[in-house]
User: Fold this.
Amino acid sequence: MSNNIVTTLLTADYLSSRKLPVAPDGRYEPAESSNHGVVLNFLEKVQAQIKRGDPILHDPQVVEGFVDAALHANTVGIDDRKMLFQNGLTILQRLDPNSNLSKKLNNVAIADLYNSLTHPPTNYLGTEFRDADGGRNNNYFPNLGRAGQPYARGVPGKTPIPYHELPDPGLVFDTLLKRRKLEAHPGGNSSLTFAFASLITHSLFRTNPYNMNINDTSSYLDLSPLYGVDQTSQNAVRQKDGTGSLYPDVFSEERLGLLPPSVSALLCIFNRNHNYIAANLLTINERKRWKPISSFSPNDPALLQQDEEIFQTARLINCGHFMSVVFGDYVAGFLGLTRTGSSWSMNPFDPIKTDDGYVGRGEGNHVSVEFNLLYRWHATISPQDEKWTEDLFESVFKTKDFDSIDLQKFGEAVRELRTHSEPDPRKRNFAGLVRQPNGAFKDEDIANLLNDAVESPASRYGARGTPGVLRIVEILAMNQARKWGVCTMNEFRAFLGLKQFDSFEEWNPDPEIAGAARALYKHINLLELYPGLQAEQNMPLGSGSGLCCGFTMMRAILADAICLVRGDRFFTTDFTPANLTAWGYNDCQRDPNNGAFGSALSKLLLRNLPQNYRYNSTYGLFAFFTPAATQQNLKVLKLTSQYDFTRPAQAPIPKVVSTLKGIGQVFNDPVRYKVPYTSDMNLLTQGVGMFLIYDTPAKHDPDRLLATRALGLHDNPEAMKWYANYYREQTQFHLKTKSFRYSLPSGPSSRYVDIIQDVVNMTSVHWAADQLCGVSLKTAANPRGLFTEKEAYDMFMILFTCVFEDVDAEHGWVLRNTALQASQIVNTCIEESLKEVMPKSGLPYIANTINTWINGHDEKPCHKWMRELVKSKKSIKDLTGLVIGLAVGSSVNYAQACAQVVDFYLKPEYAKEKAEIVRLSQLTDHESTRLLIGYIKEAQRLAPQFPGLSRVAVASDVIKESHPEKHPDITIAPGDIIFSSYYNAMTDPDDFPDPFTVNPNRPWANDWVQGTGFHGCPGYDYAQHTLSEVIRVIFSLKNLRRAAPPAGILSGFDTSVLGTKQHMYIDPTGNISPWPGSLFVTWDE
Assistant:
């Protein structure tokens, strides 16, 4: 019997057995209508399920998808290629829609899709900048955290304490808080730690003097002490000249005159950092929407619009640096991470998904009265700052009896100071410093204040630690807390989720402190919040504990730090490269490998006081700890040999030589003028160096001759032909294998390639890796090689940069550390290659087998010249130093020279010269080659690899420049740094008539492009002949042209180094680099 017949019979039976309806409208009640019979319902469900299909999907991928979701849903995310959601929907559509399982799965699917997007959105287009007063951080509650709003109350106090039952604040101070003896901070923190803490508190708290319920600054870490608390105060510190800059060494916060000068010195660092950022933003001009300010008329509204965009973007980036210091130095120190050598940091910025959903971020913040009281850390004041404060109070109150200062006297003094405060921030000074004509303070003055603070140990937290000079300030704090009606200490602990104290001894086990508190408050539940926080037992120094403040305070600080950052949309949802630019976004990131365990303050100090800190100075790298504490920490970590513990002295400003005559005098006198890169070359050559750093002919000349003869560069025309052919074939090979073909509907097929990264750089890498060092490259022809071509390029690039580039101190540690690692790899490859050609080396069978397996053959290209080297009987170590030195000096710099020549002649203004180079590239006769080399040398003259080279004087001298009427003689003293400005010398019209015209027939008395003098380029002829072959191959391509922008534009900008033009580049990550990035070209087949 079919299901339809059964259903019909059951339905007839059901209908016939029904009673008449009793409702007046003649209809049955819903409940009666639904009782269709159990059997009938079951059959209907069976029919429906058969129609829908089997809900059990018999496919291993289904299980795999569910497992992936269980493991990764809240971490890396679900792999949608495993089809979990689609399989889930298939199961759902096959279930009975009225079943509980179906409803639950449906709800899960809808919730998952809905929660994939934020509701409501956390950020909007057009709101990418901070308001001056902190408003609109939360777009839905624009006043949340805005300056001028009332303080929040975090904990409603419920403990009834009659006012007359409260102890006298002065008595509380005298018995619980007043310093009896000086005790240094157990973690070795310097006073600069708490100078920075003052910047945080003054960013968050500014109680209105007429209404203490109002906070006149924002509730965000927006550097309001620097930028101001509203638009009026912000305008007062801005130049508004189209560059987005602040006035030099100017900050908005007038209250800092009442704080030790190290606080103001730190703000000057952030001022300089803002202006550094703004200058870079305008120079890089990432989105090409800004113009040089010289192109604007004085009253052009576009000038102010440009200034506003640059200023606000720089402010975002500078606040990003501030935030990085908070976590990389401040919080890291609190957790004791620096002491243990850990560069770990909490990450409160990114999305966090738990089983309960997403943890909110970018939703705003609003500071409370409880934290206003918590952040008053007067006990940590150093002896130096205590003396400074005493002198200030004595000058203001005309007395040394600080206990005699009452509320009335203090109020009158504050009003007097406020009345006479300088309203123009440009005219405010501090610590007796004098502004220079440009408005800035001297670098050495700022550095001295900071270094004094580094050397000054902070004091410990806790009971009986606050200097007596601050008695009236502490009394005011307690009075303020009582007027606000804040909670008790135990209520605050309950709010934080901490156990409430059962006794005063549990709060502080010191019997004197506990007894004094009991005498004042009688019961632990009546202990006020302010003295409770300040006099609580301190956390001991140990793992996870470096601040050593009270337990309650520590828990609250960490929670507040997370909330301040995670709640700020400009540190979370709006903290993006789109808003900060790619360069700016990278610039304010912490670097955990910077030699300071991720310190972010070190970057700012070394960047903005470059003459005052060496790259490894502990004063710059570990400024939040005293030198003694830092030395002890590094001693435990066995790292002391890598650091400089002496107080930094200001380095001399280089003296610039700008003529051929003057440069020749310096570079041909290795007795008086030494190369500055000896230590770096020694670092990379295992201490042996090589002839490029030997300043005595006895060491220099034999090694130079050995290298040039082994390479065949010494009177060997056949070798020159071989090298020219090698570079020609390598260039042709990379053009063929690295380019790809494309065609348009109307036109011939064309090819497209990154001429720098994939052709020029790779040609140079193969020279250094294959022909010089024996570094095994992983290529299509050698798939078992050890390093890719890009990896090898990066290693040689880092090695060259470390030795020859004048790298800023802020990048010095990372560069040297990375270069050391790269050198160990390259040196090992060289040593093995040298051992393979040593006479009777007896290379073990296993090692020989491995070499053959990796390289596909026993013989390496480098073996030929290495056999010549080993004939010298020098040690493997000495020869390795020579080889790596040559490889470093003939690889990436060669590629850079070639890249800049190509880019130079592809510029529209040199179209005529390009056409002539194209013609010459089709010819191979001697005259054509001579002219081609002439064009190359002219491009190198006008677009040199580097602006100049330096030497260090070790004896007195007078440098005689050409044309003394324009270039006076330069007096030199031992220790002076001499910068030889190649670019200025090679564009001097007295030595190069019509200097900016390309003239391939220009007579060259000396080939200055490649360096001159004692350490001139040993392979000059080799470089010119091989480079001409590379250029010939590239410019012989049919209809060679730049690709469409931006790919066809070599991204970079001109800057100035000691008055000398230097071209810098933007790498693929948006960072600034001296090395050319990508340049795509195309040509017809």
